[in-house]
Amino acid sequence: MKLEFVFSPSFKDIIVSDMRTSLKIGLMTFLVLVLGSGILVGQQLPQFSQYMFNGLHINPGYAGYKGEPYIQSTYRSQWINFPGAPETFTVTADFAANEGTMGFGVSFLSDNLGPARTNGGLLTYAYRIQTGKKSWLGLGASAGFSQYSIDGSMLDPNDYPDSEIPDGRINLFAPNLNTGLFFHNDRFYAGFSIYNMIGKKSLEKEDVALAYHDFHYYLTAGYMFDLGSVVKLKPSFLIKEVKGAPMNYDLNAMFLFYDRIWIGGSYRSNLKIWNDNLPENLNNRNAVAAIIEIFATDRLRLGYAYDHNLNVLNNYNNNSHELSVGFYMIPRKAIMNNQRWF
Question: Which of 27, 68, 222, 239 is a plausible cystine mate for 84, CB 3.0–4.6 Å?
Answer without folding.
Answer: 27
